[in-house]
Amino acid sequence: MAENKFVKAKGTGNNFLKIKCRDCENVQVTYSKGSSTVVCNICGATLVSPTGGTISTNAEVLEVLK
Ligand SMILES: [Zn+2]
Q1: Could you tell me the distance, in angstroms and rounded to a whole number, from the CA of residue 34 to the centre of ligand 1?
Q2: Does 44 reside within a domain?
Q3: CATH number for the domain including 56?
Q4: Closest Cα to residue 34, out of 9, 5, 61?
Q5: What is the pLDDT of residue 3?
Q6: pLDDT in tens, 22-57
Q7: Structural domain contains residue 1
Q8: Interatomic CA distance for residues 6 and 58, integer angstroms
Q9: Of 1, 23, 48, 62, which residue is least crowded by CB atoms under 10 Å?
Q10: Rounded to whole angstroms, how far apart are CA atoms 63 and 33?
Q11: Is pLDDT of 2 > 70?
């Protein structure tokens, strides 16, 4: 399954999210709202796509850091 499906990180509010890259399982933290693309620190895969509001991500959201 190589399909990269970006979904909105719904219900996360204004918080930091712990996300896991689906390609290499690297875990990193990103903000739930943002206007820039976030790439995996390890493999360079695009993890977060900016929407101007709540981010869209194709990574697995492990935790919302409140
Ligand atoms: Zn990665």
Answers
A1: 20
A2: yes
A3: 2.20.25.100
A4: 9
A5: 62
A6: 999 999 999 999 999 999 999 999 999 999 899 999
A7: no
A8: 4
A9: 1
A10: 15
A11: no
Q: Please check whether residue 55 lies inside any domain of the structure.
A: yes
3-state helix, strand, coil in the chain (%, to 5): 0, 40, 60
Distance, CA 57 to ligand 1 centroid (Å)? 13
What are the residues whose beta carbon lies below 5 Å from ligand 1 (ion)?
A: 21, 23-24, 26, 40, 42-43, 45
Residue 52 pLDDT = 86
Whether the model pTM is above 0.85: yes
Domain extent for 17: 7-65
In a domain, 2, yes or no: no
The count of domains in the chain is: 1
CA of 47 to the centre of ligand 1 (A): 8
Residue type for position 23: D
